[in-house]
Amino acid sequence: MAHVRVENLSISFGGIKAVDDVSFEVEDNTIFSIIGPNGSGKTTIFNMISGIYRPDSGRVTLDGEDLVGKRPDKIAKKGIARTFQNIQLFTNATVMDNIMLGRHIHMKTGVLGGAFMWGRSSPTAKEEVKNREIVEHIIDFLDLQSVRDQFVGNLPYGKRKLVELGRALALEPKVLLLDEPSAGMNTEEKDDLRIWIKDIQEDYRVTILLIEHDMNMVMGISDRILAINQGVKIVEGKPSEVQKHPEVIAAYLGEED
Amino acid sequence: MDMKRDYYEDIELFQSNTVFFWTVVLMACLFTLPLYVESYNIYLVNIILVHVIMAVGLNILVGYTGQISLGHAGFFAIGAYGTALISMHLHMPFVVSLIASGLIAAFFGFILGLPALRLEGPYLAIATLGFGLTIMHVIGRWEVFGGRMGITVPPLDMGVPGTPLSFVIEGDVKIYYLILVITILMVICARNLMKTRLGRAFVAIRDDDVAAEVMGVNLTVYKTLSFAVSAFYAGIAGGLYGYVVSFFDPFTFNLILSIIFLVMVVVGGLGSILGSVLGASLITYLQFDLLKNVEELPYLGDLLVLVSRKWLTVIGLANFSSIALGVIMICIVIFEPLGMFGIWIRIKKYWKTWPF
User: Fold this and answer.
1) Measured between CA atoms, how close is B249 to chain A, in angstroms?
2) Of A158, A243, B5, B304, whose Cβ has the fewest other Cβ atoms within 10 Å?
3) Going by DSSP bridges, is the β-strand pair A224-229/A232-237 parallel, antiparallel, or unpaired?
4) pLDDT tens digits in sequence order for chain A, 257 residues long
């Protein structure tokens, strides 16, 4: 169960209302997309859900539990994982280590346990091996075997996006926030990504919030879509409804004089 | 190339039989060292080992977690004074006083880690610098610590001092074996720690603290933990240092020492345990021994001494040491940012495909 509810969320930066009184509700195990022009406040909404920004007013709840005011790491432990628009990976670590960080909250090793990891029968080594196996499945799933031991800093953009997705998946989230996952990918990679997102929703039973500019992808996989412009909600509904809405067309294509 | 067969091999200490073989060879050399090295050089090796522990600890903070510290001489001093005073006044066995002073240093590390939550880069450097200087001056003013005159360290006692259980270890060679075992233990522990979730959390904070926090890493806990672990290493190193030199005063632990420690870490390679070992060995050797040998070089030695006397200082090549250090640092930063570890990786790559 993962039911995200956002109520009357607002935040302003130096007098500019970045997000203004936005409310929406995401049902369990659905794909919910947020669309809007650049600078319309989509990423800001994600930052408020994941605890990086604290909203001026409004509520964010996960299964009825209020998340506002909690630190990002606490929110991660509640089961919300995210990716970033500009890719925020640990560039001087390998793909494996990056994804392993997603397992952080599921592991318990402390200082002494870690320092005294002597031999494969020590509890730390056992825990480590168990979690490496889980990560290996994610690497298989996202087709990253060939770059497994490479440093993230050496990878092409599209691969990095996948590593970030893998890292978020390793957290075993109930809710996954994807911020423009297909940016910088070619058509082929986009097609794969689309299938993977659908798989994540269906096989891993994850509720997905998606920010995306690729309209084919958004219209193809979303259960519901929210369109915002300049921080204000325009319309929310099924893809077919949103597509036809005059204000959405105006915001994207510009109005006729 | 060895094929990996299970997940444990990724984090195994000896990743192949070759590594295992050479480690055994190195260990054999280290344990038989006193047989073919004269006593003064054993003293030098002891200092190197102490600095290895120090550099490995500092690298956990600077290289892995990305937090700078210019105050590690302070933790070094806490370890040195702590160990000496605990065994002198509380009559504790060596191991107890060493670990206790390590923990005291770790506690101070934790305290210093708190402002680090809000400070970054140059600001953190100044805060830690202040800490190092404060420790030095506070110790200098306090009679318990021997004041400005310094203190003489009591004999290294594995048992309880002043009782029939007393078991004193004397002489550079015996102390060498003790320090060697402790150093190996500390280096392996650090390496293990960096392979687990703690090490990954440290690296995550260094590379992108926002992403780390969003993935569930508690910044408060892990930044202070990094300071504490690093300070613990510095404390242990300090405690051992006291027994190696057997006498020290507050000004042994000055700002230059903190900077030298940092130089070891950078020259060795940030974020590499092996690098710290190499860096500490090289810099300590340069500082203590190289110049003496250079002076004895035919022709070049005399020439350098002459130049030094005329332009720099009357006492031999003393100032050349700082110049050599500076030049090495500049070269490393320009040509090989990964330090000696980077050079090692290159050599390994080259030999992998040799002779093609």
Assistant:
1) 33
2) B5
3) antiparallel
4) 678 999 999 999 988 899 999 999 999 999 999 998 888 889 999 999 999 999 999 999 999 899 998 999 999 999 999 999 988 999 989 999 999 999 999 988 888 888 888 877 888 888 889 999 999 999 999 999 999 889 998 998 888 999 999 999 999 999 999 999 988 888 888 999 999 999 999 888 899 999 998 888 888 899 999 999 888 998 899 988 888 888 888 877 666 55
Of B189, B215, B225, the CB nearest to A115: B189
Q: Name the DSSP class of B15.
A: -
Tokens of B174: 């015996």
Chain B residue closest in CA terms to A171: B215
How far is residue A67's CA from residue A218's CA, in Å, rounded to a whole number? 27
User: What ipTM was reported for this prediction?
Assistant: 0.91
The DSSP symbol for B162 reads: T
Phi and psi (nearest 5°) for B69?
Answer: -140, 125
* Residue B203 with chain A: CB contacts under 8 Å: 90, 92-93, 97
The CATH H-level superfamily of A1-79+173-257 is P-loop containing nucleotide triphosphate hydrolases (3.40.50.300)
The count of other CB atoms within 10 Å of the CB of residue B349 is: 10
Mutate one of B207, B214, B224 to test the A interface: name it (highest A CB count within 10 A): B214
> What is the nearest CA distance from A109 to chain B, expressed in angstroms?
7
Q: Which amino acid is at B256?
A: I
Domain coordinates of chain B in residue numbers? Answer: 38-352
3-state secondary structure of B29: helix
**A205 touching chain B per CB within 8 A:** no
Fold for B38-352, please state it. ABC transporter involved in vitamin B12 uptake, BtuC (1.10.3470)
Query: ω before B164 within 30° of 0 (cis)?
Result: no
Contact B195, B12 (CB under 8 A): no
